[in-house]
DNA sequence: GTAATCCCTAGTAAATTGATAGGAATAATA
DNA sequence: TATTATTCCTATCAATTTACTAGGGATTAC
Protein backbone atom coordinates (compact mmCIF):
# COMPACT_ATOMS: atom_id res chain seq x y z
CA UNK A 1 0.00 0.00 0.00
CA UNK A 2 1.01 3.55 -0.74
CA UNK A 3 1.23 5.49 2.50
CA UNK A 4 -0.89 8.59 3.06
CA UNK A 5 2.33 10.47 3.49
CA UNK A 6 3.39 9.66 -0.07
CA UNK A 7 -0.05 10.26 -1.47
CA UNK A 8 -0.29 13.64 0.23
CA UNK A 9 3.24 14.52 -0.78
CA UNK A 10 2.61 13.76 -4.44
CA UNK A 11 -0.62 15.74 -4.42
CA UNK A 12 1.08 18.69 -2.80
CA UNK A 13 3.93 18.65 -5.30
CA UNK A 14 1.44 18.49 -8.12
CA UNK A 15 -0.47 21.39 -6.63
CA UNK A 16 2.67 23.49 -6.41
CA UNK A 17 3.70 22.56 -9.95
CA UNK A 18 0.30 23.56 -11.27
CA UNK A 19 0.27 26.95 -9.54
CA UNK A 20 1.40 29.27 -12.27
CA UNK A 21 2.79 32.34 -10.55
CA UNK A 22 6.13 32.25 -8.85
CA UNK A 23 4.86 33.02 -5.37
CA UNK A 24 5.65 30.41 -2.74
CA UNK A 25 2.59 28.33 -1.92
CA UNK A 26 1.33 28.25 1.65
CA UNK A 27 0.78 24.93 3.42
CA UNK A 28 -2.67 26.04 4.52
CA UNK A 29 -3.75 26.61 0.92
CA UNK A 30 -2.62 23.18 -0.22
CA UNK A 31 -4.09 21.50 2.84
CA UNK A 32 -7.47 23.08 2.26
CA UNK A 33 -7.57 22.44 -1.47
CA UNK A 34 -6.38 18.84 -1.29
CA UNK A 35 -8.14 17.97 1.97
CA UNK A 36 -4.98 17.08 3.81
CA UNK A 37 -4.57 17.57 7.60
CA UNK A 38 -2.46 20.69 7.76
CA UNK A 39 -0.03 19.72 10.49
CA UNK A 40 0.63 16.41 8.82
CA UNK A 41 1.23 18.14 5.51
CA UNK A 42 3.64 20.53 7.20
CA UNK A 43 5.84 17.65 8.24
CA UNK A 44 5.71 16.11 4.78
CA UNK A 45 6.72 19.29 3.00
CA UNK A 46 9.48 19.74 5.51
CA UNK A 47 10.81 16.33 4.53
CA UNK A 48 10.69 17.26 0.87
CA UNK A 49 12.51 20.47 1.59
CA UNK A 50 15.24 18.72 3.54
CA UNK A 51 15.62 16.34 0.63
CA UNK A 52 16.21 19.28 -1.68
CA UNK A 53 13.09 18.90 -3.74
CA UNK A 54 11.28 21.88 -2.31
CA UNK A 55 12.55 25.26 -1.20
CA UNK A 56 10.81 27.41 1.37
CA UNK A 57 10.42 30.97 2.48
CA UNK A 58 9.55 31.75 6.07
CA UNK A 59 7.39 34.43 7.58
CA UNK A 60 4.54 36.40 6.09
CA UNK A 61 4.03 35.65 2.40
CA UNK A 62 6.17 32.59 2.90
CA UNK A 63 5.53 29.14 1.58
CA UNK A 64 7.02 26.36 -0.50
CA UNK A 65 8.25 26.31 -4.08
CA UNK A 66 9.94 23.83 -6.39
CA UNK A 67 13.72 23.88 -6.49
CA UNK A 68 13.72 22.68 -10.10
CA UNK A 69 11.49 22.66 -13.13
CA UNK A 70 8.72 20.03 -12.88
CA UNK A 71 10.24 18.31 -15.91
CA UNK A 72 13.47 17.86 -13.96
CA UNK A 73 11.87 16.28 -10.91
CA UNK A 74 11.88 12.53 -11.35
CA UNK A 75 9.55 10.19 -9.54
CA UNK A 76 12.47 7.99 -8.51
CA UNK A 77 13.71 10.80 -6.29
CA UNK A 78 10.33 11.79 -4.95
CA UNK A 79 9.29 8.22 -4.18
CA UNK A 80 12.55 7.40 -2.44
CA UNK A 81 12.15 10.42 -0.18
CA UNK A 82 8.51 9.83 0.64
CA UNK A 83 8.04 6.09 0.48
CA UNK A 84 11.57 4.81 0.96
CA UNK A 85 13.31 2.16 -1.13
CA UNK A 86 11.57 1.26 -4.35
CA UNK A 87 12.47 -2.42 -4.11
CA UNK A 88 10.08 -4.60 -2.13
CA UNK A 89 12.93 -6.50 -0.47
CA UNK A 90 16.29 -5.10 0.62
CA UNK A 91 18.19 -7.84 -1.24
CA UNK A 92 17.14 -6.34 -4.58
CA UNK A 93 17.46 -2.70 -3.59
CA UNK A 94 19.92 -0.65 -5.61
CA UNK A 95 20.31 2.09 -3.03
CA UNK A 96 19.71 0.24 0.21
CA UNK A 97 20.99 -3.25 -0.49
CA UNK A 98 21.03 -5.71 2.39
CA UNK A 99 21.66 -9.41 2.28
CA UNK A 100 18.94 -11.67 3.66
CA UNK A 101 20.01 -13.51 6.79
CA UNK A 102 18.31 -16.69 5.77
CA UNK A 103 19.26 -16.81 2.10
CA UNK A 104 22.43 -18.81 1.37
CA UNK A 105 22.43 -18.04 -2.36
CA UNK A 106 20.48 -15.18 -3.86
CA UNK A 107 20.69 -16.66 -7.33
CA UNK A 108 18.71 -19.68 -6.19
CA UNK A 109 16.14 -17.65 -4.28
CA UNK A 110 12.78 -17.57 -6.00
CA UNK A 111 11.69 -14.44 -4.18
CA UNK A 112 14.81 -12.63 -5.26
CA UNK A 113 14.25 -13.45 -8.92
CA UNK A 114 10.66 -12.31 -8.87
CA UNK A 115 11.35 -9.13 -6.94
CA UNK A 116 14.11 -8.07 -9.32
CA UNK A 117 11.59 -8.09 -12.12
CA UNK A 118 9.08 -6.08 -10.13
CA UNK A 119 11.75 -3.61 -9.15
CA UNK A 120 12.92 -3.13 -12.74
CA UNK A 121 9.42 -2.51 -13.98
CA UNK A 122 8.51 -0.12 -11.20
CA UNK A 123 11.79 1.67 -11.63
CA UNK A 124 11.20 2.15 -15.33
CA UNK A 125 7.92 3.88 -14.55
CA UNK A 126 9.45 6.18 -11.96
CA UNK A 127 12.46 6.94 -14.10
CA UNK A 128 10.33 7.93 -17.04
CA UNK A 129 7.85 10.02 -15.11
CA UNK A 130 8.45 13.55 -13.90
CA UNK A 131 6.38 15.97 -11.92
CA UNK A 132 5.53 17.63 -15.21
CA UNK A 133 3.79 14.44 -16.35
CA UNK A 134 1.82 14.31 -13.12
CA UNK A 135 0.75 17.92 -13.29
CA UNK A 136 -0.51 17.81 -16.86
CA UNK A 137 -4.29 17.67 -16.77
CA UNK B 1 7.85 -3.77 1.63
CA UNK B 2 7.10 -7.37 0.98
CA UNK B 3 5.73 -8.96 4.14
CA UNK B 4 7.48 -11.93 5.71
CA UNK B 5 4.26 -13.81 5.21
CA UNK B 6 4.49 -13.41 1.45
CA UNK B 7 8.20 -14.10 1.37
CA UNK B 8 7.78 -17.27 3.40
CA UNK B 9 4.78 -18.32 1.37
CA UNK B 10 6.63 -17.95 -1.92
CA UNK B 11 9.60 -19.85 -0.59
CA UNK B 12 7.40 -22.65 0.67
CA UNK B 13 5.55 -22.93 -2.62
CA UNK B 14 8.86 -23.05 -4.44
CA UNK B 15 10.07 -25.75 -2.08
CA UNK B 16 7.00 -27.86 -2.70
CA UNK B 17 7.24 -27.34 -6.46
CA UNK B 18 10.87 -28.44 -6.43
CA UNK B 19 10.22 -31.61 -4.44
CA UNK B 20 10.03 -34.25 -7.11
CA UNK B 21 8.04 -37.12 -5.62
CA UNK B 22 4.31 -36.86 -5.17
CA UNK B 23 4.32 -37.23 -1.40
CA UNK B 24 2.75 -34.35 0.50
CA UNK B 25 5.42 -32.17 2.07
CA UNK B 26 5.40 -31.66 5.82
CA UNK B 27 5.40 -28.15 7.27
CA UNK B 28 8.25 -29.09 9.59
CA UNK B 29 10.47 -30.05 6.66
CA UNK B 30 9.89 -26.78 4.84
CA UNK B 31 10.29 -24.74 8.00
CA UNK B 32 13.62 -26.33 8.78
CA UNK B 33 14.98 -26.11 5.25
CA UNK B 34 13.90 -22.52 4.63
CA UNK B 35 14.47 -21.26 8.17
CA UNK B 36 10.88 -20.21 8.71
CA UNK B 37 9.20 -20.28 12.15
CA UNK B 38 7.10 -23.41 11.96
CA UNK B 39 3.92 -22.16 13.58
CA UNK B 40 3.94 -19.08 11.41
CA UNK B 41 4.45 -21.19 8.32
CA UNK B 42 1.55 -23.41 9.36
CA UNK B 43 -0.79 -20.46 9.26
CA UNK B 44 0.54 -19.32 5.90
CA UNK B 45 0.11 -22.71 4.25
CA UNK B 46 -3.34 -22.90 5.71
CA UNK B 47 -4.19 -19.66 3.98
CA UNK B 48 -2.84 -20.99 0.69
CA UNK B 49 -4.90 -24.12 1.10
CA UNK B 50 -8.08 -22.20 1.82
CA UNK B 51 -7.39 -20.17 -1.31
CA UNK B 52 -7.25 -23.37 -3.33
CA UNK B 53 -3.60 -23.16 -4.25
CA UNK B 54 -2.46 -25.95 -1.96
CA UNK B 55 -4.12 -29.18 -0.97
CA UNK B 56 -3.42 -31.00 2.27
CA UNK B 57 -3.50 -34.41 3.84
CA UNK B 58 -3.96 -34.71 7.57
CA UNK B 59 -2.48 -37.14 10.06
CA UNK B 60 0.61 -39.27 9.84
CA UNK B 61 2.32 -38.99 6.45
CA UNK B 62 0.28 -35.88 5.87
CA UNK B 63 1.43 -32.60 4.45
CA UNK B 64 0.82 -30.12 1.68
CA UNK B 65 0.87 -30.49 -2.09
CA UNK B 66 0.12 -28.31 -5.10
CA UNK B 67 -3.38 -28.43 -6.49
CA UNK B 68 -2.13 -27.65 -10.00
CA UNK B 69 1.00 -27.93 -12.07
CA UNK B 70 3.57 -25.24 -11.18
CA UNK B 71 3.23 -23.89 -14.72
CA UNK B 72 -0.47 -23.29 -14.04
CA UNK B 73 0.05 -21.35 -10.82
CA UNK B 74 0.26 -17.66 -11.65
CA UNK B 75 1.90 -15.11 -9.42
CA UNK B 76 -1.15 -12.87 -9.70
CA UNK B 77 -3.13 -15.42 -7.73
CA UNK B 78 -0.41 -16.19 -5.22
CA UNK B 79 0.38 -12.56 -4.55
CA UNK B 80 -3.25 -11.60 -4.12
CA UNK B 81 -3.71 -14.34 -1.55
CA UNK B 82 -0.56 -13.60 0.39
CA UNK B 83 0.02 -9.88 -0.01
CA UNK B 84 -3.44 -8.61 -0.88
CA UNK B 85 -4.31 -6.25 -3.73
CA UNK B 86 -1.57 -5.70 -6.28
CA UNK B 87 -2.43 -2.04 -6.75
CA UNK B 88 -0.82 0.39 -4.34
CA UNK B 89 -4.01 2.40 -3.97
CA UNK B 90 -7.58 1.08 -3.92
CA UNK B 91 -8.67 3.55 -6.60
CA UNK B 92 -6.58 1.72 -9.22
CA UNK B 93 -7.28 -1.80 -7.99
CA UNK B 94 -8.94 -4.10 -10.50
CA UNK B 95 -10.24 -6.54 -7.91
CA UNK B 96 -10.75 -4.34 -4.87
CA UNK B 97 -11.65 -0.97 -6.34
CA UNK B 98 -12.62 1.79 -3.94
CA UNK B 99 -13.11 5.43 -4.67
CA UNK B 100 -10.98 7.88 -2.70
CA UNK B 101 -13.01 10.03 -0.34
CA UNK B 102 -10.99 13.12 -1.08
CA UNK B 103 -10.65 12.80 -4.84
CA UNK B 104 -13.36 14.64 -6.81
CA UNK B 105 -12.13 13.47 -10.22
CA UNK B 106 -9.82 10.51 -10.64
CA UNK B 107 -8.80 11.59 -14.11
CA UNK B 108 -7.27 14.76 -12.72
CA UNK B 109 -5.55 13.00 -9.84
CA UNK B 110 -1.80 12.79 -10.31
CA UNK B 111 -1.44 9.91 -7.88
CA UNK B 112 -4.06 7.95 -9.75
CA UNK B 113 -2.27 8.35 -13.07
CA UNK B 114 1.07 7.30 -11.67
CA UNK B 115 -0.29 4.33 -9.76
CA UNK B 116 -2.10 2.97 -12.80
CA UNK B 117 1.22 2.73 -14.56
CA UNK B 118 2.87 1.00 -11.62
CA UNK B 119 -0.02 -1.41 -11.34
CA UNK B 120 0.08 -2.29 -15.03
CA UNK B 121 3.79 -2.97 -14.95
CA UNK B 122 3.66 -5.03 -11.78
CA UNK B 123 0.67 -6.92 -13.08
CA UNK B 124 2.47 -7.79 -16.29
CA UNK B 125 5.27 -9.37 -14.26
CA UNK B 126 2.90 -11.40 -12.10
CA UNK B 127 0.76 -12.46 -15.05
CA UNK B 128 3.76 -13.71 -16.95
CA UNK B 129 5.39 -15.54 -14.08
CA UNK B 130 4.33 -18.91 -12.77
CA UNK B 131 5.55 -21.06 -9.94
CA UNK B 132 7.44 -23.05 -12.54
CA UNK B 133 9.53 -19.99 -13.36
CA UNK B 134 10.30 -19.48 -9.69
CA UNK B 135 11.26 -23.06 -9.09
CA UNK B 136 13.68 -23.33 -12.00
CA UNK B 137 17.19 -23.10 -10.66
C1' DG C 1 5.53 45.25 17.06
C1' DT C 2 2.23 42.31 15.27
C1' DA C 3 0.49 38.94 12.35
C1' DA C 4 1.51 35.26 9.43
C1' DT C 5 4.14 31.87 8.10
C1' DC C 6 7.55 27.92 8.28
C1' DC C 7 10.39 24.99 11.64
C1' DC C 8 11.12 21.60 15.17
C1' DT C 9 10.36 18.18 18.83
C1' DA C 10 7.51 15.28 21.18
C1' DG C 11 3.83 12.43 21.86
C1' DT C 12 -0.01 9.16 20.82
C1' DA C 13 -3.96 6.08 19.31
C1' DA C 14 -4.93 2.67 16.04
C1' DA C 15 -3.60 -0.68 12.87
C1' DT C 16 -0.52 -4.07 11.13
C1' DT C 17 3.05 -7.43 11.41
C1' DG C 18 5.28 -11.35 12.88
C1' DA C 19 4.97 -14.17 15.47
C1' DT C 20 3.66 -17.80 19.84
C1' DA C 21 0.56 -20.98 22.72
C1' DG C 22 -2.34 -24.60 23.33
C1' DG C 23 -4.84 -27.89 22.00
C1' DA C 24 -8.63 -30.31 18.78
C1' DA C 25 -9.25 -33.23 14.79
C1' DT C 26 -7.64 -36.62 11.76
C1' DA C 27 -5.04 -40.43 9.78
C1' DA C 28 -1.56 -44.24 9.68
C1' DT C 29 0.13 -48.01 11.89
C1' DA C 30 1.52 -51.29 15.53
C1' DT D 1 -7.55 -49.98 20.11
C1' DA D 2 -3.68 -47.05 21.49
C1' DT D 3 0.00 -44.32 19.88
C1' DT D 4 2.09 -41.11 17.18
C1' DA D 5 2.38 -37.69 13.74
C1' DT D 6 0.44 -34.51 11.38
C1' DT D 7 -2.83 -30.62 9.94
C1' DC D 8 -6.40 -27.40 11.73
C1' DC D 9 -8.19 -23.70 14.54
C1' DT D 10 -8.57 -19.90 17.88
C1' DA D 11 -6.65 -16.73 20.74
C1' DT D 12 -3.19 -13.79 22.21
C1' DC D 13 0.74 -10.62 22.16
C1' DA D 14 4.90 -7.51 21.61
C1' DA D 15 7.00 -4.56 18.45
C1' DT D 16 6.67 -1.58 14.79
C1' DT D 17 4.60 1.58 11.71
C1' DT D 18 1.22 4.87 10.41
C1' DA D 19 -1.29 8.89 10.60
C1' DC D 20 -1.79 12.03 12.87
C1' DT D 21 -1.93 16.09 17.01
C1' DA D 22 0.08 19.56 20.33
C1' DG D 23 2.72 23.24 21.42
C1' DG D 24 5.57 26.45 20.70
C1' DG D 25 10.08 28.65 18.48
C1' DA D 26 12.10 31.27 14.58
C1' DT D 27 11.61 34.29 10.87
C1' DT D 28 9.74 37.71 7.79
C1' DA D 29 6.54 41.41 5.81
C1' DC D 30 4.27 45.20 6.78
TrEMBL record, chains A, B:
Keyword Ion transport part of the UniProt annotation: no
Classification via InterPro entries: TR_Rrf2-type_CS, Tscrpt_reg_Rrf2, WH-like_DNA-bd_sf, WH_DNA-bd_sf
UniProt entry keywords in alphabetical sequence: DNA-binding
Presence of keyword DNA-binding: yes
Pfam families cross-referenced by the UniProt entry: Rrf2
Superkingdom of the source species: Bacteria
Protein name: Rrf2 family transcriptional regulator
